[in-house]
Fold this sequence. Notes:
Blueprint: E1 2-3, H1 7-15, E2 23-24, H2 30-39, E3 41-46, E4 49-56, E5 59-66, E6 81-83, H3 92-101, E7 113-118, E8 124-130
Parallel strand pairs: 5-6
Antiparallel strand pairs: 1-3, 2-5, 3-4, 4-5, 7-8
Amino acid sequence: MQRAESYAALAPLLSAQLRRGVVTNCFLSAEDYQRELPRGLYYEEREGCLLLLRQRPGHLILNFYLQPGGTFFLPDVKKPVVTELSCRAKDADAMSAAPEDLPVVEMDLNRPFAFMITGVDGLPLFLGTVNSL
């Protein structure tokens, strides 16, 4: 995870995500990014997925860009992470593929874990992680 030092340094990473088929929950403007930089804006990119983490007191907000065929991953951080998933009707096919990228793992709930809440149609409504109990 790297800290973004300026919008100019972050812009090429963001521009590379602007193409058809990319699933995202990030709808920030250039002005929004400028406001986030002093608070703490971090990024990590791998295997067709760009994560953005926005610092808040006590937690991080996760935004992502998932390319077609990319692999979603969770950040390795110590603070709790929260995110939102928004879905338009025309995104249903792309969003229905997202749960396949998340492994199903049996585990004790006394350690960090990720979870997803889906609607009756199977589409994701919320994806979250618990990093501390």
